[in-house]
Amino acid sequence: MKLYANPTSPFVRIVRMALIEKGLNEATDTIIVDAWADDPAFLAANPAGRVPTLITDDGARLTEALLILSYLDAIGTRPATLAGGPAALSAAGVAIGVFDAAVAVIIGRKSAPDFDTGLVGTKRFRTMREGLRRLDAVFDTVRQPFGLPAIAAITALDYLEFRFPDHDWRGLCPGVAAFRDAQADRPSVRDTVPRG
């Protein structure tokens, strides 16, 4: 398999973490791309120019992180990433909403320097804060096994700390923060920390 990726994307990170957890990382060639550079090979794989994009061994081009995770669950022999029932998927959705809002701010800043204080930016920061609080309230009931709720929660917290280090994100979700710290040496966590 071939994964088009970016080392800072939280959507890429949840796929990379799942690949490691499922023992599929060694069978995947990860190609780091600049999603803004419009590389022809990358655009041939995904005309939307978005990461992650996975090309399967039979040449299918899969886009969108959750669709890729579904495929990895179908081919992997280890526990399903998307398991756990409605409560787990609900918590994972909150965590994904947190880092989706953060990505929207980063992209919004490219076109509007005052994005953070405008209507959309203000709403996105509210989503990040309230999402972390809500996630922390339910996290103990859905963090095991180490599936999408845990992966997405760790990704959300790490991404906010990486992109917005001047905020106290951990104070909003002390349970998630403690869990993240306890997982610091787990290969899927340690080897995918955002860098840029």
UniProtKB/TrEMBL annotation:
Q: Which GO terms describe its cellular component?
A: cytoplasm
Q: Which residues form a coiled coil?
A: none
Q: Which domain of life is it from?
A: Bacteria
Q: Where is the GST N-terminal domain?
A: 1-80
Alphabetized InterPro entries for the sequence: Glutathione_S-Trfase_N (IPR004045), GST_Omega/HSP26 (IPR050983), Thioredoxin-like_sf (IPR036249)
Q: What is this protein called?
A: GST N-terminal domain-containing protein
Source organism of the structure:
Methylobacterium aquaticum
